[in-house]
Amino acid sequence: MTSAMRTRVWGMVLAVGMVATLAGCDYWPPALQAQIEQLRAEVQAAAAERANLDNQLKDAVKAKEELQARLDELARLNRELAGNIANLKQALDAEREKTAKLGKSASKAAPKAAAKPAPAPGKKKPAAKAPAKSKKKV
Prior knowledge:
Number of helices: 2
Helix content: over 70%
Structural class: mainly alpha
Largest sheet: none
Number of strands: 0
Radius of gyration: 55 Å
């Protein structure tokens, strides 16, 4: 072979190589194909896991919102009951003050009542003055 012919062969090999590079190569080695399939399977598994975690997150957010609504309702009821308890305590204190005043006035009246003899249980007090009976003329 002459050097001109060698140059032509190398030129043609180079040209074919450039065309193959620009056109793309459809040949995938089996090891590379297996690695690509494994990566695709991992991506699908990760996508399924992410979807599962998204659903769990949605459920957790929904449960949190429900619990927050329940907490708000219970806090409102607690405030109402605390107000009722405060009102009842005030009413109880007022009644205790009234009872204490009545107890003091009853203890003051008790010595006066002790000075008077108590009427016998079987006898009735005589009436103050009975109206006089009028006599009829016949």
